[in-house]
Specification:
Blueprint lengths: L3 H10 L2 H10 L4 H9 L9 E8 L5 E8 L9 E6 L6 H15 L1 E6 L11 H7 L15 H12 L7 E6 L1 H10 L8 E5 L13 H6 L8 E6 L7 H13 L5 E6 L16 H12 L8 E6 L6 E2 L2 E6 L5 E9 L2 E7 L1 E8 L7 E7 L2 E7 L3 H10 L10 E6 L12
Parallel strand pairs: 3-4, 3-5, 5-6, 6-7, 7-8, 13-15
Antiparallel strand pairs: 1-2, 2-4, 9-12, 10-11, 11-14, 12-13, 14-17, 15-16
């Protein structure tokens, strides 16, 4: 019988049709393939530290520091992708976060940032360092290393893909907030140390950030900040936490470190300190649930139009696209969408039954015949960055009917 690692390689390296034929010969249907891709049974990870090479979407290599702690129970490990600050590296952050990985029972992967590919305004971090900022930095582009590190780990390691987290410090904390507000459905939790959703809130409203911040309601978040941080003010993180709690976020925690300055070495991310223990507690309690019954999502860019089983496409320029999708039952989906002209539904028998499914979009209904397809499952596995929790057994594309302006859509 084919193993999980071989199946992942086939999905990513072969054509969908060739891979589907291989899996059919193995007696696998779409649900069986999904279970195999989730499996960690055939690849126990030995404790080790090593440097691996990651490639971004443009073929540029960077070094990433991999640390696999000793396993102390029978559970497959979770994953922590660590994002360092300006002027630091994956190797430096790994040394700070190894005790955290040990305590969480998680594999740790810390890439080193490069300068953004192509033209960049450096908008996320120029507020700290001015327009002259030319250092390597993270972006939220799907082809950059925060996403590619998650993909590499799901592809190569025996980790529980429903227990993946980002932990970022300084610039890495900013990137963690940015990822949590755009690709939250990939994460079990996120932790920011001396980061903030937007540095530009120091000077005035960051409308993009404010529009996307409600997406963070979908992911548990641990926020740790130094009271003496003179580079990224504590108030930026505090205000964001207060705002999210006011919107009903039940899975957010906030620890202020009285003697903490901006440098990570002052923040006491060590066993026995409240800030360390809170990140460990948050990670231990968090687990992503694929194919939830309701999905609410906002997007300003097509690259971040998807959350779980619904994706917005053809977004209207200059506006925020919103979607509220729910499964009324296993034969009826209701979607409310605005700010986009097309939708993709990425369906699974985890969500709906085989056969006729009624789909209602902006009060207009149509029936579809849900028939799981190995080819669709394989195709969407690659599109989903090797995440079996986001692969679909059938993809449905549809136009979004217009709704009256006064009805709107809020998420």
């Amino acid at each position: 019988m084919i193993g999980a690692q071989e199946a992942r390689r086939a999905c990513l390296d072969e054509s969908p049709e060739a891979a589907a034929e291989l899996f059919r010969r193995q007696g696998l249907d779409p649900r069986g393939l999904e279970r195999l891709l989730f499996s960690t049974a055939d690849a126990g990870e030995a404790a080790r530290s090593e440097t691996v090479e990651l490639l971004d979407a443009w073929g540029r290599p960077t070094e990433a520091e991999l640390y696999v702690p000793s396993r102390r129970d029978g559970r497959p490990p979770g994953l922590i992708v660590g994002l360092h600050g300006v002027g630091s590296s994956g190797a430096a952050l790994r040394d700070h976060l190894r005790p955290l990985a040990d305590a969480c029972g998680a594999v740790l992967l810390c890439p080193t940032a490069l300068q953004p590919f192509g033209a960049s305004s450096n908008f996320d971090v120029a507020g700290i360092f001015g327009s002259r900022f030319k250092e390597a930095r993270w972006t939220t582009e799907p082809g950059d290393f925060p996403v590619r590190a998650l993909r590499w780990a799901r592809e190569h390691l025996a980790v529980d893909v429903n227990r993946c987290a980002l932990v970022g410090a300084s610039m890495g904390g900013i990137a963690t907030w940015g990822m949590a507000s755009r690709r939250w459905d990939c994460l079990a939790m996120a932790a920011s140390v001396n980061g903030a959703p937007s540095i530009w809130e120091m000077f005035g409203p960051d409308n993009t950030m404010r529009e996307l911040l409600p997406n963070v309601l979908g992911v548990p978040l641990a926020v740790v900040h130094g009271v003496r941080d003179q580079q990224i003010p504590l108030v930026l993180a505090r205000d964001a936490v207060t705002h999210l709690r006011g919107r009903g976020h039940q899975g957010i925690s906030f620890v202020e470190v009285p003697d903490g300055e901006h440098k990570l070495s002052t923040m006491g991310i060590e066993p026995g300190n409240p800030q360390f223990d809170e990140i460990v507690r948050c990670f231990g309690a968090a687990r992503r649930t694929p194919w939830p019954g309701q999905v609410r999502h906002r997007a300003r860019e097509r690259a971040h139009g998807r959350a779980h089983w619904v994706e917005m496409d053809d977004l209207h320029p200059g506006s925020t696209a919103t979607v509220d999708a729910r499964a009324v039952d296993r034969t009826h989906l209701v979607v409310r969408a605005s700010g986009c002209s097309r939708l993709r539904l990425l369906l699974s028998d985890r969500l709906v039954d085989h056969g006729r499914v009624l789909v209602t979009v902006n009060d207009r209904s149509r029936e579809i015949d849900f028939r799981p397809s190995l080819v669709d499952a394989i195709s969407t596995y690659g599109e989903a960055d090797a995440d079996p929790g986001r692969m679909a057994q059938m993809v449905v594309d549809m136009a979004v009917p217009e709704i009256r302006e006064e009805e709107g859509s809020s998420c």
